[in-house]
Amino acid sequence: MEYVNPLTGFRLDGRRPNEMRQIRGEIGVVAKADGSALFEMGNTKVIAAVYGPREVRNKGQQINNQALVRCEYGMANFSTGDRRRKPKGDRRSTEISLVIRQTMEACILTHLMPHSQIDIFVQVLQADGGTRSACINAATLALADAGIPMRDIVTSCSAGYLCSTPLLDLNYVEDSAGGPDVTVGILAKMDKVTLLQMDAKLPMDIFENVMQLAIEGCKAVAHYIREVLLEHTKQLECHRGA
Amino acid sequence: MRDLQLSLNQTQRVRLQAALQQLQDLASQAAGSSSVTIADTIPVNNEDGILKGHGTSELDGQVVATLCGVVERVNKLVYVRALRARYKPEVGDIIVGRVIEIAPKRWRLEINFSQDAVLMLSSMNLPDGIQRRRTAVDELNMRTIFEENDVVCAEVRGFQHDGSLHLQARSQKYGKLERGQLLTVPAYLVKRRKQHFHHLEQYCVDLILGCNGFIWVGEHLETGENNMLEDREKRPETSKSNMIHEEQEQTFTPLEVRQHICRIANAVRLLAALGFILTVESIVDTAEASASSNIEIKDMLGPEFYVQTVEREVQRRILLSRKRV
Known about the structure:
The structure holds two protein chains of two kinds.
Chain A lengths: L22 E5 L7 E7 L2 E12 L12 E8 L15 H17 L8 E11 L4 H15 L8 E9 L2 E4 L3 H4 L5 E7 L4 E8 L4 H37 L2
Parallel strand pairs in A: 4-5
Antiparallel strand pairs in A: 1-2, 2-3, 3-5, 6-7, 6-8, 8-9
Chain B lengths: L9 H21 L3 E3 L14 E2 L3 E4 L2 E4 L3 E6 L2 E6 L11 E10 L2 E5 L6 E8 L11 H5 L1 H4 L5 E9 L5 E5 L5 E3 L2 E5 L12 E4 L4 E5 L4 E6 L5 H13 L2 H11 L4 H20 L5 H13 L10 H22 L1
Parallel strand pairs in B: 2-6, 9-11
Antiparallel strand pairs in B: 1-5, 3-4, 5-6, 7-8, 7-10, 8-9, 10-11, 10-12, 13-16, 14-15, 15-16
Helix pairs in contact in B: 1-8, 6-7
Keywords (chain B): Exosome, Nucleus, RNA-binding, rRNA processing
Protein name (chain B): Exosome complex component Rrp4 homolog
Subcellular location (chain B): Nucleus
């Protein structure tokens, strides 16, 4: 199957190999949560809700000098083509929960909130490839909305290699082609990588190209996220008044 | 905005857009405030020996924000004031909380903070009002003072070693709050003032603006030890069933006061949803405006009054800015 048209160079959905899907972020979608956000990358829609910092429920897990970060990833039953039977608790969800937790914990300044707990709940409403990245971006927006101090904005994007071309931001069809899928998460301003995952195999030099492409995608997302946050902060401050 | 799901018709939408645009213009005229997001560099003159306060950190010799908020400068201190964060306590704050748990010799209250607050039995007045050492019997009778899910008003006495709050409720105006509503608003909308207890005479309503964002609107009860002693004298005299009826008749909240409570509570909800700072004046103004426009209490959270409130706020800020100039 030709994922990249040899004549025109377009992909299956009409994008160029180095083009991302359209992204959209909205803050404040869950009223009761301390912070919440909706993030869309093309057809992938994800909601993140953050509760915290609040009292630790399970005293046994309390950490004395920093906050405990918990994360739960779930996919809605209706998010994929065939109705899912188990929204949480299956191995893929547990793995992605762990990945998101480690990524966000690296950037939250947990030592400022000892003896407390921060809960991040991420749910996929529509899955069309790149759910991991969309979840991390949504979690960043939600944490910023909740006023939790962070080192930097964490963004994530995925890239792959099909038909001898590095492709940015794979959708579901391209992802299920069986080619390599590299997911990168970076701290945008500090230019550090916090998440790097790949499945399938790639030679080293091609891997470098694909990773570089994903990092550029992350930077573009970071630019957008920063604008959304700035706009939201200005609006809140303007409403609040003197 | 966040909590209210409104369906505005076309005219209301246009009016709302115009009013919000005017608010933004006023805000940008006032200027002075600079908003930052996470990892934004804060412009700082390095020779001045700047102190880096809350919400900032150092990166490559530059001062960088760790929160989304507004940069505030006080002499040599530079810090970022976050907007929608949890409550930041200070000693002496008046707060309203809900009892979650009864622990040995203390109650744990949920306030809008990263940990639960602790109210010791010794920081609470006993029902008989005598100042004495708390005995084991007092400890067993803690449930008669506060139970789980009771709403309590207290003052911050200090911080414990693990960072949680230590409260005290020794005065008559603190203690259990009954006959009213508890509302939760973002903590940044309640500013610290000299007075947090307000008695709205024309409505017979008590309004307590807790610094942690918990607002209490309730029937005005006369504070004083007289009430407590009277009740205790009456109890052994009358039989149980009679007493319940009598108490209910004597202490029944009249319908009009209940309506006033609901009106004030809806005014608070509306202002919190709009993101305007909560002051007694603004709450009472909103309630009066709704009464004078003949808007039903249940319609106060509807689209029409929503748009009217934004327009009134715009007018108020224009007047304020003219006075300053």
